[in-house]
Amino acid sequence: MADKPFSATRVAHLLMAERLSPGDRCIDATAGNGHDTVFLRQKTGERGLVAAIDIQAVAIESTRNLLRQQGLETGCRLIKGDHAQLLSLLGNDWLAAARVICFNLGYLPGGDKQHATQSASTLAALQAALAFLAPGGLLAVTAYPGHREGASESEAVAAFMSELATNGYFVNSWSGLSTAKPAPVLYVVRSCA
Ligand code: SAM
């Protein structure tokens, strides 16, 4: 079988796996078709709790179906809503409780690009997410500058991450090199405290 380059999603999973243990809580802020939710649920087990959020009902259903197919529904809370409203969606008991928070930006693969993530709500959600990270927790954000819909959002995310890096957070970024179009960029954020 031919070898394939690492994808940003694969690297995100490797780094998230390193942080996660059974019983942990985590947040998938863009549930989409449920692949990241399934991954987080596999790592945290039945004693853990994964909150998976998406603005589209079709994405929540798709995530529910994937979890069901794999017998992983327990330990997951599926929430239809805007991730910019994290506090009202999750409540106070999630503050400082998530070992991993993951954003996979862009549009639902196979879905309507009109419902792609947008700069303003993404920035509001990323800012809000910081308060939900547990000590030692990790925020993983994958942005897609090569998509027409994602170019300006990716710029906004890059500026947000640069700001965080000068304000008490360790921020790393990772991207493949591509001559065709800008490759997806993974940002990984940890609190310095
Ligand atoms: N993590 C997903 C997976 O593993 O299949 C892929 C996520 S997909 C690239 C991006 C998702 O973000 C879409 O399903 C879209 O509906 C969702 N989305 C867009 N704007 C949102 C918002 N304001 N709040 C929550 N979800 C949003």
Describe this structure in words.
It is a single chain. The chain has 193 residues and is an alpha/beta fold. It is built from 6 helices and 7 strands; from the N terminus they run αβαβαβαβαβαββ. Strand 2 (49-54), helix 3 and strand 3 form a beta-alpha-beta unit. Helix 5 (119-129) packs parallel to helix 6 (151-165). It has a 7-stranded mixed beta sheet, with helices on both faces. It is globular, with a radius of gyration of 16 Å. The longest helix is centred in the C-terminal third of the chain and has 15 residues, at 151-165. The protein has helices at residues 8-19, 35-44, 57-69, 86-90, 119-129, 151-165, and strands at residues 25-28, 49-54, 76-80, 98-104, 133-143, 169-175, 185-191. S-adenosylmethionine (SAM) binds next to helix 2 and strand 2.
Notable characteristics:
single chain; 193 residues; alpha/beta; 7-stranded mixed beta sheet; 6 helices; binds S-adenosylmethionine
What secondary-structure arrangement, pairings included, does this model have?
Layout: H1 8-19, E1 25-28, H2 35-44, E2 49-54, H3 57-69, E3 76-80, H4 86-90, E4 98-104, H5 119-129, E5 133-143, H6 151-165, E6 169-175, E7 185-191
Parallel strand pairs: 1-2, 1-4, 2-3, 4-5
Antiparallel strand pairs: 5-7, 6-7
Helix pairs in contact: 5-6
S-adenosylmethionine (SAM) binds next to helix 2 and strand 2.
